[in-house]
């Protein structure tokens, strides 16, 4: 059975994780990655011009620390691991750190913008890295490292080193007035629902909730309704993998109320 853990922190960090064993690597990472990333960020100094590098370094070291802590504290056996997507939001940037095959996408107007690229073993650069380290990717119910794992990066899964690595890829996206929401989900959603379909569902439901609500509905309630709907839709489409979804409404309550009062 696949188990999931997801959380949103008041600092603006949102995380999706999943693991093969309940409450082990995923739960541990959800409790630690906020702190380790923040600590590594503080070590980066105050060089404003190098903020891209500072974020990349903070996430890379934060993920590496979480991976080391899993081993050093014997959180789980070496055959257990977790993917992770972490999103940091500021007033002008969306910073996404991904390790594994969960995914974050941005709904901007009528566009769906991928904020991460799945780490799949048959992705051209990942395949080259795995084979360059002496590994093999075998087609067994999809591309898998040595016929076992269907992702090429994760936290944990140390029995698959050096082919499975805990190194995240970090992307930077400038925010826009047209941004509607973020959809951050595990592969159980994306296996059966495309980015465009998820975006259309989210866009329509969010806008409908906004039109029919005055000031009584807070932003996260509308976002929760979208997350629940997407989860139900993936279940109805017979997804065979874990399904965990977080939706972040990027339209502020204040702006929605202003539009309503002037409309």
Automatic annotation (TrEMBL):
SUPFAM superfamilies for this protein: PP2C-like
Single GO molecular function: protein serine/threonine phosphatase activity
Domain of life: Eukaryota
Annotated PPM-type phosphatase domain residues: 1-250
CDD domains: PP2Cc
Matching Gene3D superfamilies: PPM-type phosphatase domain
Protein name per its UniProtKB record: PPM-type phosphatase domain-containing protein
